[in-house]
Amino acid sequence: MGSAAKCLAVLKLVLIERLVYRLNFFLQVLSGVLTSLIIIFLWMAVYRGNSVSSLGGYTMPEMITYLLGGGLINTFILTTAENNETSQTIADGTLSGLLVQPFSPYWVWFFRDMGTKLFLFLLGLAGYGVVFLFFRDFLIFPGSPDRWLLFAIAVALGVLLQFLLFESLSLLAFWVENTYGIRFTMRVILEVTGGAIIPLSFFPSILQAFFFALPFPYLIYLPMTIYLGKTPADEVAGALVRMGFWIAGLAVINAVLWRRGVRRYVAMGD
Amino acid sequence: MKDLRRYWELFLFFVKVGLMKQMAYRPHFFLMITGKVIRIALLFFFFQAIFLKVSRIGEWTWEQVLLLFATFHVVDYMMSITFGRNLSSHLPSRVQSGEMDYRMILPANLLFFASLEDVDMMDFFSFLPTLGFLGWVLWRLDMAIAPLQVILYILLIANSLVFLYAVILAIATTSFWTTQSYGLAVIFDNLMKIGRYPLDIFEGFWKVIFIYFVPLVLIAQVPAQALLGALSPGFLFFAFGVSGTALALALMFWRRGVKNYMSASS
Q: Is the ipTM of this complex over 0.85?
């Protein structure tokens, strides 16, 4: 079996697995949709209650588009933002079985994560589709195909960045008994600093400076500001390059952690 | 009285075991607490970012929104320390795995076990800064609060816990028939987060839904309004009536669920 066929096989398997618990996953996605709706209602009340047409440079339609788009991205970024499988496999020793297979466990985890994200994206589209229809009069679409393309590239890079970020923490399971605490803390920070519930430009400049020193704003805030044309065209390339640096840096960290980790890996069994 | 004392001792035992279990991985324990405190801080900044641009959300000022926010998180923590995860997560998995069997033969109330067996001490330690935050918000309110308002506030917080207990118990009880109750619990968990915001953000149909049909207004808004002296006596009776009725119905449903339990163990 060639490498591509192996990757496809892993993707197919994870989709089949997820389909078994499709109702629970769908309810999870639905609750994400609900959260987006709550935040939208909150912002609508803020705009209408204070009789303002623009806040922080965002009109109400721009804000609604931002929150719905961000919510959809959040569905497959945040719901999978734990990379639980990696640390569990290392901690409970089932990694031993994977190590003797002719396909690196690291790539198995990668493609399983991508499969889960794809599955959640499709469920998210179904869930958000209804909401998009409900708010169709407020939605804004990019005027040019270039902007669509740049948006798609930013989302795709964001997916990769998110995997690498959480994978680097999960791989710490080779050294520490429980990595959930650190992954949870990172996820909590991501919830707000990723920009899913509020555009980061609303925060005081000192907090913005802190947030932009982290990789999280590249996950939701950057793609959505590219989509809405809030990131000037001449700054998009620079932002995507910075994102590329984060990805490259984290990929190196992942590779080092994986190699060193496997070397010190010990599994008890019967 | 003797029974009460026995259950109190049992509860203290659960607290001790909970602490021992969660302290087994100390870095994890402290990181989780840090993460939970950071979450509250970031949500505070979220509201602050809005109020840097506007002066009100609906009829609510910055200080009032902070009171609502702090009240919500106090209730949320009290729930998650005690019955929250026990009912929404542990009970369904124990029903599915057949682990309820041995709990049924213990000489103690099954519902007591189902509701309190795993006391979340991690959330207890995250709760303490939230209490401090509530104290800071009360100090900032800069208004005279009568003792009756404070008593009503405490009673309505207890009432909101009764309401949440009833709803979560009803959802968890469905696990005696279905394997999908966890998804419902996740939905409710997200739904209840609406209680963190002033319900004025909803209009017309939705406002009616969240006040009368799924009265999320009971979680934090009603206690906060009582403390601010802005709650009508009619609504006070409505709040207690809804929670009492919900609890009675949930207990009836629970009894039916237990009768329907079929062990799944080998």
A: no
